[in-house]
Design a protein that fits this description.
Blueprint (H helix, E strand, L loop, with lengths): L18 E3 L2 E3 L19 E3 L2 E4 L2 E3 L2 H15 L3 H14 L4 H13 L3 H14 L4 H13 L3 H14 L4 H13 L3 H14 L4 H13 L3 H14 L4 H13 L3 H14 L4 H13 L3 H14 L4 H13 L3 H14 L4 H13 L3 H14 L4 H13 L3 H17 L3 H16 L9 H4 L7 H10 L1
Helix pairs in contact: 1-2, 2-3, 3-4, 4-5, 5-6, 6-7, 7-8, 8-9, 9-10, 9-11, 10-11, 11-12, 12-13, 13-14, 13-23, 14-15, 15-16, 15-17, 15-23, 16-17, 17-18, 18-19, 19-20, 20-21
């Protein structure tokens, strides 16, 4: 069994593709970029026939060998621009030198030219069909570029050449998974664990696939094994917590997702979902802090702004809620729930005309939003327009009935009876009470976000 270790300060390439699935993120555990043993040649050299040999690196050109050695020395000193020039000299003298193409691939990565790196690694495999590390790095770069077919082909070739290269099985599984071939991905993760039963990320990713397939107990077992092997492995806590949430086990979900958020404070999704769970537990102060952190990590997260606004509303911080919903709408003007919740803020501030306008914007984008229809009626009643109020309350009542929400039908009936047909005197009913809006769409939007 071989699990390659990255050593000697060589660059490590991490897969940038992360698969979003029902239970969260799939984390790529990409292996390192490797040099063959002996690739860092000594100054001495020897001749084998008419080929120049530098610790196992064959070239027919003494000049190519010397230039390559210079390139290697410069690469180790991180003088990448000069190293690039010398590797080009080596390839001018010997265009078929596999290790020169391989090193050139590394240098292209340092220069943030992954397409050229991909071509260089491919050339290395062309001129040395047994070059395992070149195939592996070709697979990693192809995966990062979204070229899944060549990535799968490259990792498959690694496995054929070195059946115990455990990281190659893992990367092949990840590529299959991103491609949507879940069964093939599972097979590769199982093979990883046959070769190395301590491979934490394989347990995590296999657990995600099992959960997706409905094998909840097996999924939980995999996540728990990952945590047992590495008590600080945040992804497994995160996935396990979301799975607990799917089973409506709020307490365990809160604890495990909270642990993930604590272990990985830079993971925006963990912070966001922890905020949702805290809000579900009615800890709105704690939830607001998590949503604020989510926004710092990902300023374009519309849902985080919306949920921050809902938490502020629950705390009675109307000004903060107003700012949060306005920010959400700046990012996504078509977010119906943010328009709705903005209307709730205006209604609580007794700015009924602005509230009506916000609710109307919500209905343009989501005509079935019955709560918005109801609240428009409430606002018109507060403005002293009972006829318009009646029209909207009756319309909302019909929508509630269609939705099977009997308690909302009864609420509409009570409002019609007490506020419009038999209105109280102004002295006994403050305006704020008269215009109390239906609560913001916190529970519904929270549920939607957790399940997304």
């Amino acid at each position: 069994m071989k699990q390659r270790e990255n050593g000697g300060g060589y660059p490590v390439l991490f897969g940038s593709q992360q698969r979003r699935i029902a239970l969260g993120l799939m984390f790529a555990l990409s292996g390192g970029i490797f040099f063959q043993q002996g690739a860092i040649a000594e100054k001495s050299s020897q001749l084998v026939g008419n080929k120049q040999v530098l610790n196992g690196i064959y070239t027919e050109s003494l000049e190519a060998g010397k230039a390559f050695q210079q390139a290697m020395d410069l690469y180790q000193r991180r003088e990448f621009a000069r190293a690039t020039k010398y590797v080009e000299i080596a390839l001018d003298f010997d265009p078929w030198m596999p290790m020169a193409h391989y090193l050139q691939g590394h240098l292209f990565l340092e220069a943030e030219k992954p397409r050229k790196a991909q071509a260089a690694y491919a050339s290395a495999t062309q001129y040395d069909p047994l070059f395992v590390e070149a195939y592996y790095n070709l697979g990693l770069v192809s995966y990062d570029l979204g070229d899944l077919r060549p990535a799968i082909a490259a990792f498959g070739q690694v496995i054929r050449l070195d059946p115990e290269f455990v990281d190659a099985y893992f990367q092949l599984g990840l590529a299959y998974d991103v491609q949507g071939q879940s069964r093939s991905a599972q097979e590769q993760y199982v093979k990883v664990l046959e070769l190395d039963d301590t491979y934490v990320a394989a347990y995590n990713n296999l657990g995600i696939l099992l959960a997706e397939a409905g094998s909840t107990a097996e999924a939980i077992a995999n996540f728990e094994t990952a945590i047992e092997l590495d008590p600080d492995y945040a992804p497994a806590y995160y996935q396990l917590g979301l799975l607990y949430l799917k089973e409506n086990n709020l307490e365990q979900a809160l604890n495990t997702v909270g642990r993930a958020a604590s272990l990985d404070p830079e993971n925006a999704l963990a912070q966001y979902h922890y905020g949702l769970l805290l809000a579900e537990a009615e800890n709105y102060d704690g939830a607001a802090k998590r949503f604020e952190r989510t926004i710092r990590l990902n300023p374009d997260n519309v849902s985080a702004y919306r949920q921050l606004g809902v938490a502020a509303l629950k705390n009675g911080d109307l000004d903060d809620a107003l700012v949060a919903f306005q920010e959400a709408l700046n990012l996504d003007p078509d977010d119906a729930l943010s328009h709705y919740n903005l209307g709730v803020v205006y209604q609580k501030q007794a700015q009924y005309t602005l509230a009506i306008a916000a609710y109307e914007q919500a209905l343009i984008r989501e005509p079935s939003l019955s709560e918005a229809v109801f609240n428009i009626g409430v606002c018109y009643q507060a403005l002293g327009k009972p006829r318009k109020a009646t029209t909207f309350i009756v319309q909302a009542r019909d929508l509630f009935a269609q939705e099977g929400r009997d308690f909302k039908v009864q609420e509409a009936d009570r409002f019609l009876q007490r506020r419009i047909l038999n209105p109280p005197t102004p002295e006994t009913t403050p305006a704020e009470t008269e215009a109390a809006p239906t609560e913001p769409e916190d529970s519904e939007s929270t549920s939607t976000e957790v399940q997304a």
